[in-house]
């Protein structure tokens, strides 16, 4: 899925137009949704793209439930909440999606719990967030809570895919950002051009058990986004 982290509806539509026929899904996050609102979802859907609404809802259960209801009404394919918001909040999200799908007679979106952001490593998680366990342990804890609440899967970095798949089983949906090319993803301590620290190549993420890969700058910042997207698809399809 292409991450539509762009500042305007025109920029999003232009990028989607260049990728039409190569990719079939997109992620709409805070930047584009703040700039364009529901029109961004409508534009992507009209072009035939399935939409992952990446707004990471995190609030009291009632507020999150109402937000999820509206997101469902907009026809998104996937949405997410912060699993760290607690069991009651996650339950409210799952229940709201199910009820809204019935009320509006549309498919229920996949509801995901965001575990630990890819910008955090163990030191930041412990020192800044106050979580004393390892990143992997906290990811597994939040994923288990999300499943208990009735969510369908989680968002996690490539480094936690294998333990998640082992712990959560084959039906648990794993969505993975932090996808980078070989040099940036595999060189320990290498200088990185962005803020994601727990990353992997597309092929390694897929082999580890990811269901969906969210790819942003390796495609959107490329001189030829369509060519970059096609290269990733080819890498994933290679024997």
| Structure annotation, total helices | 12
Q: Tell me how many strands there are.
A: 8
Oligomer: single chain
Find the structural class using helix and strand composition: alpha/beta
CATH top level is Alpha Beta
Largest sheet: 8 strands, parallel
Architecture overview:
It is a single chain. The protein has helices spanning 9-19, 30-36, 38-46, 61-73, 87-104, 122-127, 135-149, 161-168, 182-186, 202-208, 217-220, 225-237, and strands spanning 2-3, 25-28, 50-57, 78-82, 110-114, 153-155, 173-176, 212-213. It is an alpha/beta fold and 239 residues long. The longest helix has 18 residues, at 87-104. The radius of gyration is 17 Å and the shape is globular. It starts with a strand and ends with a helix. The model is unreliable at 183-193 (pLDDT under 50).
Map the helices and strands.
Elements: E1 2-3, H1 9-19, E2 25-28, H2 30-36, H3 38-46, E3 50-57, H4 61-73, E4 78-82, H5 87-104, E5 110-114, H6 122-127, H7 135-149, E6 153-155, H8 161-168, E7 173-176, H9 182-186, H10 202-208, E8 212-213, H11 217-220, H12 225-237
Parallel strand pairs: 1-2, 2-3, 3-4, 4-5, 5-6, 6-7, 7-8
């Amino acid at each position: 899925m292409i991450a539509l982290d762009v500042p305007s509806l025109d920029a999003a539509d232009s990028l989607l137009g260049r990728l039409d026929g190569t990719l079939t899904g997109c992620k709409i996050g805070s930047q584009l949704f703040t700039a364009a609102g529901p029109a961004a979802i409508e534009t992507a859907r009209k072009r035939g793209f399935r939409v992952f609404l990446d707004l990471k809802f995190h609030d009291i259960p009632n507020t999150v439930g109402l937000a999820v209801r509206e997101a469902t009404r907009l026809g998104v394919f996937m949405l997410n909440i912060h699993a760290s918001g607690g069991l009651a909040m996650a339950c409210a999200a799952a229940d709201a999606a199910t009820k809204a799908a019935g009320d509006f007679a549309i498919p229920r979106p996949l509801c995901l719990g965001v575990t630990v952001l890819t910008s955090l490593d163990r030191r930041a998680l412990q020192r800044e967030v106050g979580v004393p366990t390892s990143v992997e342990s906290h990811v597994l804890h939040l994923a288990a809570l999300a499943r208990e609440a009735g969510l369908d899967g989680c968002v996690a970095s490539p480094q936690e895919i294998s333990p998640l798949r082992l712990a959560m089983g084959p039906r648990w949906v794993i969505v993975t950002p932090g996808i980078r090319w070989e040099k940036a993803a595999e060189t320990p301590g290498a200088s990185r051009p962005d803020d994601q620290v727990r990353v992997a190549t597309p092929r390694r993420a897929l082999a580890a058990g990811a269901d969906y890969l969210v790819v942003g700058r390796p495609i959107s910042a490329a001189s030829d986004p369509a060519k970059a997207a096609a290269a990733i698809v080819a890498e994933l399809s290679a024997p």
